[in-house]
Amino acid sequence: MLHGQGQPQVTVAYGKPAILVPDARRAAAVLVAWARAAPPLLLSPPGACAWLGPAGWLALIAQARALCPGVPFGHALDCGAAPGHALAALRAGVPILVLAGAHPAYPAVAGAAAEAGAVLLPAPPPAIVIDHLDLRRPAGRARLRVLLAGP
Questions:
Q1: Which of helix, strand or coil describes residue 51?
Q2: Which pLDDT band holds residue 151 (cuts at 50, 70, 90)?
Q3: Which domain of life does this protein belong to (predicted)?
Q4: pLDDT, average across residues 62-90
């Protein structure tokens, strides 16, 4: 299943599509199963910055790194239509952010992101949704490998 299909592509060199990850365990499962040349882009759920916050997202990412040391990947935090959350995420060091491109503050946040060396996307990139998979079971892990193998 793809989230954000038809939206702009991520402008950095990560594997396509992104993978929507709701927790560190699923993020680590993606990193273990990823078999494409370019590293994966782990994407937060829509609007996660509002309820998880930048610190929570960065902690989730740190857990995934600890579970899969040495595996390269990128990560993006979805800030929905909340420019204040996006600015907080920039201050926290989140490298790739999603903020609704139609928001009147988007250009100002884009300027701040550019100044910070971060990437700001106007919409989430296409993403595979994996939260429905039971990764404790071999069949769930096998399905994940199929989804990540791509076309």
A1: helix
A2: low
A3: Bacteria
A4: 95
Residue with tokens 């560190």: 24
User: Is the link from the previous residue into 54 a cis peptide, with omega within 30 of 0?
Assistant: no
The residue ranges of every structural domain in the chain are 2-149
What letter represents residue 73's amino acid? F
Other Cβ atoms closer than 10 A to 24: 19
Residues 6+ away with beta carbon under 8 Å from 47: 78, 79, 80, 82
Residue type at position 126: P
Between CA 151 and CA 77 the distance in angstroms is 26
Q: What confidence category does residue 6 fall into, taking pLDDT thresholds of 50, 70 and 90?
A: very low
